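Quick note —
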Amino acid sequence: MRVLSVRGAVQVAKDEPDLICQGLGGLVEELLQVNRIKLRRVINLQFSVTRDLVSLNPAAALRRRGDYGGIPLFCSQEPDYRGSLERVIRVLILFESLFFRTPRPLYRGGAEALRPDLAAGS
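Predicted structure written out below.
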C-alpha cells in the first residue's frame, strides 16, 4: 500500500456558510471522483483558509455532508500575504493506494489563478 496526496483549492463568492459548504464539498467530492479515491482509503484531509473566511470552519462544513465523521480533518489559517487571492479554501487529501498514479489536482471557482500551470488540466 502506498500513501499519496492530492491538493485542490476553491474560491467562494462570499463568506457565507452555505457557500463554503457547497464550494468545499463539491471540490472534495470531485477530487475523490477524478482521482478514484475511495473514502475508506482516505487517511486525513488538511485545510487552509484565507483570513477573510470566518463564518464556518472547513472541517465543520465537510462534516455537515455526512460521510466524513470518521476521518481526521485539520484546519489552519493561510498566511496573509499582500496580493493574495481572497476567500480561498485549500485542501490536501492523504490517501492509501494499491498502485502509484500521479494524482490530479483541481482548482475551482477562481482558484485556478493560484496555479495556472496545474489548473489548465483540471
